Each structure stands twice: as structure tokens, then as C-alpha cells.
């Protein structure tokens, strides 16, 4: 019982998170190389070299930081990514945590991520990091709202807040086709909450690295790892909410989930490399005036579809 | 009721965490730290609620408190003259009244915990916590409450949209300029040029 309910889920989540985060770095390097950005070393080795280099670097200190919060924030972000991945069902029986409110738990991971990202920028006690932190809080609320409406749309046909039920409800037709607006909106949420590519406003170049601008050494490594891990957890949630999770012919369920996660990751990383960064003010307008109403349309669509 | 020993151990750990972090709220010298200590306390309570199989209420506690504490921290920093909330400051006031209130509430709640009789109904095996909670809370008035919720939400979004871009004195990205005291006059409340008292600054 302990093996099935405690040890196996922990091992599964850890392996998927670590291998997934490594694959994020590899795929990102490959996409960058294919798009013509010069890369040092091979795509497979470069993330490892970079990680080892960061491990040996000295950790920066700023003037009077909140040390505990500063050191804890990257670890907490990583823990949130693990929590998020823990609700992803890999097959009808292989579910790390089959909470009846797992969709809501993912929502609270997104909300707590806002707190952790703010804490990371705030506790350094430097200007650019603080601006990055405030930027994320200003935008994070709109990400959470969009994600919430899109996920309620997914929960409607399943009549449950449980991801395993959401996957089971896609037996006939995947949500990506049933609710065509859902996945595109949710992908934007994913790029937003990991501040990746076009929505990298918290750790952006114009803030010299934002919340991570004064972080170096091992905690920088943990922060980068946590961002990649959060992207992995997000892709798992997207795969089960919209792409039918373990459903698929021929292959066993867990393999289908992994393949779909890799597909979502590839799309996200490609978007991250192709799209330019959005200006923060325009991003707020885009979120509230365009994407949030679209998520209402998605929800109404889901409701009407569930009634018919 | 049968449950594994680990539930008791986790309850004690989480209860300690909730009480200790709640106590730290009043010891810390920063409003941001105080908000997040309170958040830790609420999260511990939320996990205890999940242990009590109130799965929806526990998880709802996480995200509601996360957003609430975040917004509270930002607003407190905005309204207090304390850049970013990193400057140490005294966080407690009205000592005598608050001590008396704290003791009184502790006695009342402790009395409730010790003297009242709690029901001992085992959970039915086929309990659906989310649906039963919804029926218990709203029952027949579900449609009314849901409509009211949508109206409130629309109002909130409308307020954000109305207030986000156009400020009282012009568009947000152009900088604000107060109107004149008489129609068409100079902006009110602006310092006179060269009235800085030997303090030079360049634009």
C-alpha cells in the first residue's frame, strides 16, 4: 500500500520532472539552433555543462536581502511544479494523486506561483528584481482568471473537478476539438505562468534578468530548473485537459501521456522562440480586453455544448 | 473511526505550523513577510481540511488565500510610506486592547472545543464531497447564487477595464496632469519652476 500510494508516485513525479526539465533545455537548444541562433556545444550536452558551471559558481549576495525567502523561493517554485505534475493522470490506474478536486488544485498552484515569483524578486532587495516581481503580480491575476475559465469549460462535460474524470470524458472526442478555443488560450497561460518567450516579463532582458537579475550559482540553477519543471507540469495538465491524456490506440496509456506532453512542450518552446516579447502595458490590455472575453466565449461554448 | 496513525502525525505537524506561522505574523517587521506568514498559516489549515476529507474547501483555501495575501501585501505596501515593504517597521499597535481581545477569543474558542459535543457520523463510502457541498451551501437557490456570482464578476471585470487605462487626469501611459483651478488654467498643485530652493535637478 505504501509502495503504491507513496513511493511509486514520488519516484514517477521526480523522474518525469527531472527528465522533462532536461528535455525542455535540449528541445529549446535544438529549436534555437534550427532558427539560426549560434549555440555553444551540442544540444544534448549544453544544458548539463551550463548546470555544472552554475553549481560551481559563487552565490551572489545583495545588500540586506531577505535571505530565507530568497533562498526558498526557487525551491518553492520547484515544489509547486511537482505538486502540479502530481495531479496528472498517466493511466486510469497510474495517478500520483487522484484528488477529487485536482483541477482546483492546479488552479491554486498557479495562484501560489504568483506569490513565489513575487517573493523571488522582492526578497533580493534590488530595483530591477522588484520591478520584475511587481510586473508578474500585475499580469499573474489575468493568467489565473483565463486559466480558471478555460478549466471550468473542461470540467463541465466531465461533470467533475477530477483530472482522471476529465480525461475519461474525452473518450469520444478530445477537448481540443470539442472546445477549439480552450487549448490555444491555455497555452498562453502556460507561457505566462512560466514567464517564457513572448510573456517573459518578470525575468526579461529589459530588466537585465528581472527577478533573477542578482541571483547566481546554485540558486540560479534551481530557479531555471524550476521554470523548466513548471513548463513540464503545465504540459502534463494541458495534455490531460485537452489532448485526451492516456487515450490513444496501440501504445500504453503512460506513453501516450508522455508523447502528448512532449508535443505540447515542443509547441510552447517553438512559440517561445518565434514570438517577440510583448510590451508589459500591451500585455495587460491583451489579457483583459482580448483573451479574457475569449475565455468567456470558450466557457459559454462549453456550457451550450454540455446542454445539447 | 479507523484511520492510519500518519494522519494524526500530519495533523499535529500542520497544526503546529499553522500556530507558529500565525504567531510569526505579529513578530515580523515587514508587511510583506507578515502577509506571507499568514498565507503559510492558512495553507496549513487548508491541508488539515483536506485531511478531514473537506477536499474542496481545503483546496479552495489555497488559491483564495494565495491571491488574497498577494493583493493584500501589494496594497499595504502601496498605501504605507515604506518602499517595497523591506524597511523594518513596527507591525503591532493597541497592545492592551489586542491582548485582551486575544485572550477572550482564545477562552471562548477553547471553551467551544472542550465543552461542545461533536457529531460522530462516519462518512458514507459513496460521498461526493464537491457535489454534496454545493447542495448543502446553495441547495434550491443555486441558480440565483450563480447569476449573482456572474453579475459580480462582470462588475469586477468592468471596473478593472474602466480603471486600468484611463486615469482621472488622462491616459495612464501619458502621465497624469491635474486640471486647473479655473477652466483652462494651469495645472493645480504643481510646483513653480525654479521654486526648488537651490536644489538642482536635471530632466
UniProtKB/TrEMBL annotation, chain A:
Annotated GO CC locations: plasma membrane
BP term (GO), one: aerobic respiration
Location relative to the cell: Cell membrane; Membrane
Chief localisation class: membrane
GO molecular function, one term: NADH dehydrogenase activity
Pfam families cross-referenced by the UniProt entry: NADHdh
Chain ranges passing through the membrane: 6-27, 72-91, 134-156, 176-196, 228-247, 253-271, 283-304
Membrane topology note: Multi-pass membrane protein
Protein keywords: Membrane, NAD, Transmembrane, Transmembrane helix
UniProt keyword Amino-acid biosynthesis, yes or no: no
Domain of life: Bacteria
Family indicated by similarity: Belongs to the complex I subunit 1 family.
Name of the protein in question: NADH dehydrogenase subunit H
Automatic annotation (TrEMBL), chain B:
EC number annotated for this UniProt entry: 7.1.1.-
Molecular function, one GO term: NADH dehydrogenase (ubiquinone) activity
InterPro entries: NADH_UbQ/plastoQ_OxRdtase_su6, Nuo/plastoQ_OxRdtase_6_NuoJ
Entry superkingdom: Bacteria
Pfam families linked to this entry: Oxidored_q3 (PF00499)
Compartments where located: Cell membrane
Region of interest called Disordered, as start-end residue ranges on this chain: 171-203
Keywords tagged on the record: Cell membrane, Membrane, NAD, Quinone, Transmembrane, Transmembrane helix
Presence of keyword rRNA processing: no
Bilayer-crossing regions: 6-27, 34-54, 60-85, 97-116, 142-162
GO cellular component entries: plasma membrane
Catalysed transformations (reactions): a quinone + NADH + 5 H(+)(in) = a quinol + NAD(+) + 4 H(+)(out)
Membrane topology: Multi-pass membrane protein
Family listed: Belongs to the complex I subunit 6 family.
Quaternary structure (record): Composed of 13 different subunits. Subunits NuoA, H, J, K, L, M, N constitute the membrane sector of the complex.
Functional note: NDH-1 shuttles electrons from NADH, via FMN and iron-sulfur (Fe-S) centers, to quinones in the respiratory chain. Couples the redox reaction to proton translocation (for every two electrons transferred, four hydrogen ions are translocated across the cytoplasmic membrane), and thus conserves the redox energy in a proton gradient.
Protein name per Swiss-Prot or TrEMBL: NADH-quinone oxidoreductase subunit J
Amino acid at each position: 500500500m505504501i509502495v503504491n500510494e507513496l513511493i511509486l508516485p514520488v519516484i514517477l513525479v521526480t523522474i518525469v520532472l527531472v527528465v522533462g526539465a532536461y528535455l525542455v533545455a535540449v528541445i529549446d537548444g535544438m529549436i534555437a539552433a534550427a532558427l539560426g541562433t549560434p549555440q555553444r556545444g551540442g544540444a544534448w550536452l549544453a544544458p548539463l555543462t551550463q548546470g555544472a558551471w552554475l553549481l560551481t559558481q559563487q552565490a551572489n549576495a545583495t545588500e540586506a536581502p531577505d535571505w530565507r525567502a530568497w533562498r526558498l523561493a526557487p525551491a518553492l517554485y520547484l515544489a509547486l511544479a511537482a505538486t502540479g505534475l502530481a495531479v496528472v493522470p498517466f493511466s486510469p490506474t497510474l495517478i500520483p494523486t487522484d484528488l477529487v478536486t485536482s483541477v482546483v488544485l492546479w488552479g491554486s498552484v498557479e495562484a501560489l506561483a504568483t506569490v513565489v515569483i513575487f517573493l523571488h524578486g522582492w526578497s533580493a532587495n534590488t530595483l530591477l528584481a522588484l520591478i520584475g516581481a511587481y510586473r508578474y503580480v500585475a499580469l499573474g491575476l489575468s493568467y489565473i482568471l483565463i486559466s480558471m475559465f478555460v478549466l471550468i469549460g473542461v470540467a463541465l462535460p466531465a461533470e467533475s473537478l477530477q483530472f482522471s474524470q476529465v480525461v475519461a470524458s474525452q473518450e469520444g472526442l478530445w477537448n481540443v476539438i470539442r472546445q477549439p478555443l480552450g487549448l490555444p488560450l491555455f497555452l498562453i497561460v502556460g507561457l505566462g505562468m512560466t514567464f517564457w518567450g513572448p510573456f517573459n516579463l518578470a525575468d526579461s532582458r529589459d530588466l537585465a534578468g528581472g527577478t533573477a537579475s542578482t541571483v547566481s550559482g546554485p540558486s540560479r540553477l534551481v530557479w531555471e530548473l524550476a521554470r523548466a519543471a513548471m513548463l513540464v507540469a503545465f504540459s502534463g495538465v494541458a495534455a490531460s485537459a485537452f489532448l485526451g491524456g492516456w487515450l490513444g490506440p496501440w501504445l500504453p496509456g503512460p506513453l501516450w501521456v508522455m508523447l502528448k506532453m512532449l508535443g505540447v512542450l515542443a509547441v510552447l518552446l517553438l512559440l517561445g522562440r518565434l514570438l517577440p516579447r510583448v510590451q508589459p502595458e500591451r500585455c495587460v490590455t491583451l489579457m483583459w480586453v482580448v483573451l479574457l472575453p475569449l475565455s468567456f466565449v470558450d466557457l459559454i461554448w462549453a456550457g451550450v455544448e454540455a446542454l445539447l | 473511526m479507523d484511520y492510519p496513525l500518519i494522519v494524526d502525525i500530519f495533523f499535529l505537524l500542520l497544526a503546529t505550523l499553522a500556530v507558529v506561522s500565525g504567531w510569526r505574523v505579529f513578530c515580523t517587521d515587514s508587511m510583506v513577510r507578515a502577509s506571507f506568514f499568514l498565507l503559510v498559516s492558512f495553507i496549513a489549515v487548508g491541508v488539515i481540511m483536506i485531511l478531514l476529507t473537506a477536499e474542496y474547501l481545503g483546496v479552495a483555501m489555497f488559491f483564495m488565500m494565495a491571491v488574497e495575501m498577494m493583493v493584500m501585501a501589494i496594497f499595504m505596501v502601496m498605501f504605507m510610506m515604506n518602499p517595497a515593504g523591506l524597511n523594518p517597521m513596527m507591525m503591532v499597535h493597541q497592545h492592551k486592547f489586542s491582548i485582551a481581545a486575544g485572550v477572550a477569543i482564545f477562552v471562548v474558542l477553547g471553551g467551544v472545543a472542550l465543552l461542545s459535543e461533536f457529531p460522530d457520523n462516519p462518512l458514507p463510502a459513496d460521498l461526493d464531497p464537491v457535489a454534496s457541498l454545493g447542495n448543502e451551501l446553495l441547495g434550491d437557490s443555486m441558480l440565483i447564487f450563480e447569476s449573482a456570482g456572474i453579475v459580480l464578476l462582470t462588475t469586477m471585470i468592468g471596473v478593472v477595464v474602466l480603471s486600468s487605462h484611463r486615469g482621472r487626469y488622462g491616459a495612464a501611459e501619458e502621465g497624469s496632469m491635474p486640471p486647473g483651478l479655473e477652466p483652462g488654467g494651469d495645472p493645480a498643485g504643481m510646483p513653480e519652476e525654479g521654486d526648488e530652493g537651490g536644489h538642482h535637478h536635471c530632466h
